[in-house]
C-alpha cells in the first residue's frame, strides 16, 4: 500500500522566470508516530515523549505524574514492542494493541491511542491491557489506590451493569440497582430518580433482553481518568441499539458505578430492504386512493395497525380528505420504481418505520409520508399524510406559498440587502443567493448595482422590516419552477421590487433581484 505523502510547492525565482517544482515528503503514519513515541520511552527520553504527546494527555497529566505512571505500570521499562492488532476507533483517532517486552524479559500488552492534531498523529493515551479483548489493567496517570488498582474486564463490567439495569426495568423496581452503585453515587442518584428517568423506556417496552450475550463496541478505548474508569460505546441487540456512557470508581477493591447515561433506540437493522419498503408504500397508496375514489374507508380502516384504528374511524378518515387530495385519481398503474424517497427510510424514536417521498403521476405529483409499526412480524400502516400538487416545469408540484410566507421572503431578502448597504459589506448577502446567481456576480458588481439605494434617505433595512407590502402582480410559479414576486414597499420613498426564487431542498433561495425607488403600486392584493 502506498504511504500517504505531503506535497509541498516550492516557488523559485530565477532572473525573471518562475520555476515550479514539486517536492514530496512522507507524512508519518499512526504506526510511525506510535513507534517513534515508544522509541523515546525505551531510550529514556521520557520528557521528549511527554512533549510530543497529544495536548489532551498533557492537559490532564503533569510531567511528574507521567513519570510516575510509567514507573508504576512498568511501561517505562519496555525495550521493544510488536503491534498485534488495531482497535475500532472514531474518525480522527487510531488505537493499537501491541505485545511489549520489558527490559527484565517480562511481557505486557499495551493499548496506545492516537489523535490527529493538525495533520500530525500524536499519542493521547497509553494503558497496559490483558490480551483478552476488552480487559484493561487499571493504571492511572493520576495515581491509584494505595494497594494498586484492581484488574478489570471492561466488557464484563459493562454487560453486568446493563444486565442489572434490564432486570430493574423488567421488574419496575430500581432498589437493587441503586444499591449496586458506589456509595458516593447513591447519595445523588436515588431510587426515585432512577425510576423517573427510566420510566419512558418502561412505557415504550424498551428492554435490554439479550444483553447478557452481547458484545460492546467502544466509541473510544476505555480509559482511566482522574481515578475513574470511563467507558462509552454501543451494543446492538435484536430489536434495539443501546448507546452507553458508564463511569466506575474503585470501592472496597471492586469497581462500582458512579455515573451512567444510556440511549435506547430501535435498531436500524429492522429497516426492511428497498424492494420491501417500496412495495409497502405502493400498496398503502393504492388502498388510500381506492378509498378516496369510493368515498368509503371501511376496508382501508381494517388494514391499519390496531393503534391507528383506535385513533381514527372510517368516517373521520373520509372527512379528512379535502382539497386536491380528493382528486388523487386512479393509482392502479403506479409501479414501485415510480416512488422517489426524499430521504432514506428509517426507524424513528417511537419504533415506527418512516417512508417519505413523492411520485409523479401524469400531470400531478403525489407527496406522501407513511409510518408503519411492526405487528406480529408484519409492518402495518400507523400513519399517513398525502398531498397532491399540479406539476410545474421542474416536474415537482409546488404550491405557491401563502401570503405570510411570501411577505416573509420579501422582507428577509430586502432586509439582507439593506444590511449589506448599511454595513457596506455584501459578502453575507452574496452567500445567501442561489449558487447559479452567485456565480454570475461579484462583490464589486453588487456594490455598483445597488449604489443608488444607499444612504439614510432610503434606509432599506428598516423599510423592509416595517413597510406595508403590496404585490403588483399575482405571485406565481413559472413552468421552470421559478417563484416570481413583483411589488412595492409603501412609504417615502416607495421601493419597487422584482424578486425570483428557486426551491433548493425545502428552502426558497433568491435567484434574481431588481430593486429601485419607484411609485406605489396601483394594483393591490
From TrEMBL:
Keywords: Membrane, Transmembrane, Transmembrane helix. The chain crosses the membrane at residues 7-24. This is Lumazine-binding domain protein. It comes from Kolteria novifilia. The lineage of its organism: Bacteria, Pseudomonadati, Planctomycetota, Planctomycetia, Kolteriales.
Amino acid at each position: 500500500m502506498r504511504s500517504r505523502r505531503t506535497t509541498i510547492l516550492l516557488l523559485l525565482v530565477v532572473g525573471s522566470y518562475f520555476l515550479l517544482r514539486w517536492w514530496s515528503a512522507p507524512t508519518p503514519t499512526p504506526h510511525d508516530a506510535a513507534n517513534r513515541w515508544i522509541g523515546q520511552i525505551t531510550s529514556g527520553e521520557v520528557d521528549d515523549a511527554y512533549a510530543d504527546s497529544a495536548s489532551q494527555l498533557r492537559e490532564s497529566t503533569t510531567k511528574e505524574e507521567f513519570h510516575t505512571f510509567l514507573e508504576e505500570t512498568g511501561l517505562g521499562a519496555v525495550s521493544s514492542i510488536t503491534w498485534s492488532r488495531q482497535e475500532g476507533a472514531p474518525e480522527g483517532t487510531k488505537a493499537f494493541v501491541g505485545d511489549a517486552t520489558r527490559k527484565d524479559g517480562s511481557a505486557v500488552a499495551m493499548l496506545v491511542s492516537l489523535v490527529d492534531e493538525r495533520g500530525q498523529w500524536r499519542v493521547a493515551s497509553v494503558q497496559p491491557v490483558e490480551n483478552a479483548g476488552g480487559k484493561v489493567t487499571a493504571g492511572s496517570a493520576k495515581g491509584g489506590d494505595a494497594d494498586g488498582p484492581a484488574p478489570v474486564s471492561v466488557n464484563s463490567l459493562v454487560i453486568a451493569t446493563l444486565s442489572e439495569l434490564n432486570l430493574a426495568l423488567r421488574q419496575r423496581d430500581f432498589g437493587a440497582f441503586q444499591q449496586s452503585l458506589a456509595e458516593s453515587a447513591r447519595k445523588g442518584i436515588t431510587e426515585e430518580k432512577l425510576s423517573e428517568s427510566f420510566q419512558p423506556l418502561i412505557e415504550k417496552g424498551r428492554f435490554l433482553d439479550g444483553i447478557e450475550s452481547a458484545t460492546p463496541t467502544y466509541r473510544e478505548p476505555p480509559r482511566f481518568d482522574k481515578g475513574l474508569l470511563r467507558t462509552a460505546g454501543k451494543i446492538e441487540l435484536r430489536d434495539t441499539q443501546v448507546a452507553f456512557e458508564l463511569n466506575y470508581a474503585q470501592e472496597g477493591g471492586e469497581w462500582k458505578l458512579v455515573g451512567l447515561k444510556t440511549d435506547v433506540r430501535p435498531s436500524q437493522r429492522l429497516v426492511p430492504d428497498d424492494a420491501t419498503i417500496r412495495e409497502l408504500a405502493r400498496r398503502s397508496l393504492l388502498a388510500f386512493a381506492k378509498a378516496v375514489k369510493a368515498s368509503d374507508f371501511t376496508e382501508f380502516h381494517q388494514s391499519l395497525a390496531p393503534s391507528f384504528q383506535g385513533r381514527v374511524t372510517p368516517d373521520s378518515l373520509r372527512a379528512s380528505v379535502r382539497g386536491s387530495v380528493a382528486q388523487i385519481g386512479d393509482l392502479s398503474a403506479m409501479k414501485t420504481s415510480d416512488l422517489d424517497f426524499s430521504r432514506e427510510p428509517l426507524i424513528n424514536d417511537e419504533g415506527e418505520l418512516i417512508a417519505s417521498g413523492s411520485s409523479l403521476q401524469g400531470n400531478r405529483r403525489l407527496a406522501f409520508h407513511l409510518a408503519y409499526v411492526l405487528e406480529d412480524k408484519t409492518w402495518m400502516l400507523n400513519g399517513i399524510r398525502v398531498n397532491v400538487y399540479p406539476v410545474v416545469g421542474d416536474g415537482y408540484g409546488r404550491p405557491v406559498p401563502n401570503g405570510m410566507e411570501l411577505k416573509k421572503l420579501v422582507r428577509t431578502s430586502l432586509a439582507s440587502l439593506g444590511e449589506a448597504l448599511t454595513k457596506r459589506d455584501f459578502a453575507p448577502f452574496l452567500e445567501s443567493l442561489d449558487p447559479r446567481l452567485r456565480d454570475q456576480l461579484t462583490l464589486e458588481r453588487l456594490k455598483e448595482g445597488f449604489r443608488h439605494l444607499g444612504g439614510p434617505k432610503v434606509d432599506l433595512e428598516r423599510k423592509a422590516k416595517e413597510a406595508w407590502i403590496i404585490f403588483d402582480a399575482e405571485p406565481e410559479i413559472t413552468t421552470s419552477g421559478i417563484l416570481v414576486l413583483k411589488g412595492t414597499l409603501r412609504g417615502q420613498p416607495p421601493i419597487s421590487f422584482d424578486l425570483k426564487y428557486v426551491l433548493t431542498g425545502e428552502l426558497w433561495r433568491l435567484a434574481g433581484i431588481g430593486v429601485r425607488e419607484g411609485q406605489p403600486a396601483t394594483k393591490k392584493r
